[in-house]
Amino acid sequence: MDKKIPLMKLENINKVFGKVAASKNVNLSIYSGEIHALLGENGAGKSTIINIISGIYTPDSGIIRYEDKEVKFASPKDSIKYGVGTIYQHFKLVDAMIARENIILGQKNGIFKKGKKFEEEIKAICEKYGLDLDLNKYVCDMSVGEKQNLEILKVLYRGAKILIMDEPTTVFTPQETKRLFKIMRRMKEQGCAVIFISHKMDEVIEICDKVTILRKGETIKTLKVEESNQDELIELMVGRAVDLTIEKVESEIGKELLQIKNLTVLNEEGSEAVKNISFNINEGEILGVAGIAGSGQKELCEAIAGVISTKAGEIVFLGENIEGKNPREFIKRGISMSFIPEDRLGMGLVGSMDMVDNLLLKSYHLQKGMIIDRKPLIEKAKELKKSLEIKTPSISYPIKYLSGGNIQKILLGRELSLKPRLLVMAYPVRGLDINTCFTVYNLVNEAKKSGTAVLFIGEDLDVLTQLCDRIMVMCHGSISGTIEADKATREILGRMMVGSKA
């Protein structure tokens, strides 16, 4: 095909939900043999455009062209017919099936796709794109990287020419990211078009050919990556220059605040998620925790916060063993701890409530008398809305309708306003745009300055090395090592994440 003709072109795409214009005259040209990034803050319209290309949403107006011919996507089946394959951040795989069965699942005449011809077709695709996968392996036994390879293989087997990759490296080690980029380059060489969505600017610059910036539902600019830089891209996304330096706050390390002794915690299936680990955190210190997803980080946080029970070990807070006590008992006993869970709406906040009621959740049982005084909380909600630049129609608006970044600001604002001695954070910037991420980092640093001890579970290794004092690495529920942040590199941490010692 003539390289000058886009494989797919979106012209003046508009999509409105109620009174919100999610897409306003969006224009996007995707060429074969190119990796094209979509960048924008939370709420910029990236998901809407991806859902339109995938056939999940139908645009209210505008034209979609495929190889210069106008097409209409009324359902995902239509987009698949025109070679669109979407690989979501949360994989669409059946854990109890092997790889081969997952590929067959949902295919036309799938039950008949067996035998030598099927094997040869899969083998040819794997060789063509450099995919390495055991077809007889159960999904539940696969690493995150293997699961993603299976998702890629699934869409390529369906004949995909345009691959949409939504935050594909979120829970990857540096080694897994390198392997994925190698596969993406092979796809590009074979004439595929890849639409890449990521909040990690260094990855966008490393792997992409072009970038289209979206802001408030509109196309701001499309440019070649080689002709731009990180600062320019972020300024286009946010609408103003942003300082990307994470401040390394120097504070006096105080006395030991939290000590974990021989802690073992079970997961929901009854297996040991945390296996006999011991560590400590001091006042005014940020201890980062790195590890491949599912290495026990979530269960560790929830056990410390009193959300789940432990199998063995001690959780010692200022000399008192608080193991077995729940969050309400913490508050009544004056144990000053705040927890920012991974599941913001499921565990942290109530989506149907507004800002004021969500602030009230943490303090209503401390008020005396039968009548709850809401006035101080109304003032606090107004103060947080202004200081954290929370975008909401009003403090009385249900928070479930807000973007992920604004929900996280409300949760952080509530917990930090209580001035905790210990702050436990599980993936506090997951899925947030760069501007909101830096708001979170600044809040963490402010807590550190005031003497708060912070346990920071993170995914971005660069952020962990810049923000934290020490980094503890978990692998399969155990601690593979702890390292001073100023001595850590992505490569060292990556090796520790797969079980090698520093």
From TrEMBL:
Domain of life: Bacteria
Gene Ontology MF annotations: ATP binding
Keywords for the protein's UniProt record, in alphabetical order: ATP-binding, Nucleotide-binding
Pfam family membership, one: ABC_tran
Statement: the UniProt record of this protein carries the keyword Lipid biosynthesis: no
InterPro entries: AAA+_ATPase, ABC_carbohydrate_import_ATPase, ABC_transporter-like_ATP-bd, ABC_transporter-like_CS, P-loop_NTPase
Domain ABC transporter: 8-241, 258-501
Alphabetized Gene3D superfamilies for the sequence: P-loop containing nucleotide triphosphate hydrolases
PROSITE patterns in alphabetical order: ABC_TRANSPORTER_1, ABC_TRANSPORTER_2
Keyword Phosphoprotein: no
Protein name: ABC transporter ATP-binding protein
Taxonomic lineage: Bacteria, Bacillati, Bacillota, Clostridia, Eubacteriales
